[in-house]
Amino acid sequence: MDRAVLASLQNALDPQLLEDAVKLAVTEIEKEQPTLSKQRETLERELLEVDSRLHHLAEAIAATGGSETIYSKIKDEEQRRNGLQNQLSRLIEMAKVTSLDSARLILVLRTRVGDLQELLSRQVFEARKILRATLNGSLIFQPIEVEGRAGYRFFGTGSYGSLLAYSQASNDGGGGQGI
To answer: 147 by DSSP, 3-state: which?
Structure first.
């Protein structure tokens, strides 16, 4: 049964399937680039407006000596500016993700998949740990009969992300040579 489960996991690590998934994901992210640019422009414009209002409020304090109303408005504008700056920072980080080099990503992915496939075929104990890290829950086994022979069909869901992260963690401890 171990061999059948591990063979299925190896089949799920089809490099072409994963490469197609990466290309699709990068395409979807790139489609959002124009929206991110517009959002960034809007946030930057709003920040300039807030800074302008803060400048006018500072001038009002200089001219009148200030009042509770002016100080309250300054506090509100500073909070607004902080919120806008946080949104802009998140947007800038998202823009970095959209500049993914899909060819490099695919190369890294193929390397990790190759390492994992080799590991799955040679080390059952380590393969079980990988399977646990990959699965979302348990495998479900269903008895079946095919051409008069008893067997099992099994189902489960998992994440390539956790699987590939496991590959990286395993390789990091391998002295640069993998496991």
So the answer is: coil
Rg (CA), the chain: 27
Give residue 176's pLDDT: 39
The verdict on pTM exceeding 0.70 is no
**Is the distance from CB of 179 to CB of 119 less than 8 angstroms?**
yes
Q: Can you say how many angstroms the Cα of residue 179 is from the centroid of all Cα atoms in its chain?
A: 25
> Amino acid identity of 4?
A
d(CA 104, CA 2): 34
Burial (Cβ within 10 Å: 0-12, 13-18, ≥19) of residue 112 = buried
Residue 149 phi/psi, 5-degree rounding, is -110, 135
Residue pLDDT, tens place only, 125-144:
877 787 777 788 888 888 88
Q: Say how far apart CA 51 and CA 59 lie, in whole Å.
A: 12
CB atoms within 10 A of CB 168: 11
pLDDT tens digit sequence for 59-90: 999 999 889 999 999 999 999 999 999 999 98
Per-residue CA distances from 74 to 2, 21, 54, 78 (Å): 66, 49, 6, 6
